[in-house]
Amino acid sequence: MKVGEVCLMTGDVVRLADFYKELLGIENGSNDNVHQFILSEETTLTIYNDGVSRMSNPHNICIAFTVADVDAEYERLKLLGVTIVDPPIVRPWGAKNMSFLDPDQNLITFRSIL
């Protein structure tokens, strides 16, 4: 069994999808304001508006992406004006991580395995 999809629920699909397309360097050819697939190789990142109002985000989920160079991504994200939660730091389990928020305040981690 493998994870087939991660779905971010939002009230503004275009804004959040545009953020992830820029973040991940992916163009999906869609400007749909209800549902967009962002990645579709093994696992899909979906942005979806189910019509439910979401007023706050308690950070019950974190999405982690493995990247080649966390420090370079950190510099790129600062230029994009992304809200950084934790700058790059080496963790005891052998990864260098950084955390930031997407436009809906979801917690995102970029990590490099050392």
Walk me through what this model shows:
By secondary structure, this protein is of the alpha/beta class. The chain has two domains: 1-50, Signal recognition particle alu RNA binding heterodimer, srp9/1 (2-Layer Sandwich), CATH 3.30.720; 61-114, 2,3-Dihydroxybiphenyl 1,2-Dioxygenase, domain 1 (Roll). It has helices spanning 13-24, 70-79, and strands at residues 5-9, 35-40, 44-48, 62-66, 83-90, 95-101, 107-113. The strands form two sheets. A four-stranded mixed sheet has the order 4-7-6-5, covered by helices on one side. A three-stranded mixed sheet has the order 1-3-2, covered by helices on one side. It is globular. The mean pLDDT is 91.
What keywords describe this structure?
single chain; 114 residues; alpha/beta; Signal recognition particle alu RNA binding heterodimer, srp9/1; 2,3-Dihydroxybiphenyl 1,2-Dioxygenase, domain 1; 2 domains; three-stranded mixed sheet
Strand % is 35-45%
Average pLDDT, rounded to a whole number, is: 91
The CATH topology label of the largest domain is 2,3-Dihydroxybiphenyl 1,2-Dioxygenase, domain 1
Output the structural class: alpha/beta
Order of helices and strands: EHEEEHEEE
**CATH homologous superfamily assignment of the largest domain:** 2,3-Dihydroxybiphenyl 1,2-Dioxygenase, domain 1
Q: Give the biggest beta sheet.
A: 4 strands, mixed
Strand arrangement within the widest β-sheet reads 4-7-6-5
- The shape, in one word, is globular
- N-end to C-end Cα span: 27 Å
Number of strands: 7
CATH C-level class of the largest domain is Alpha Beta
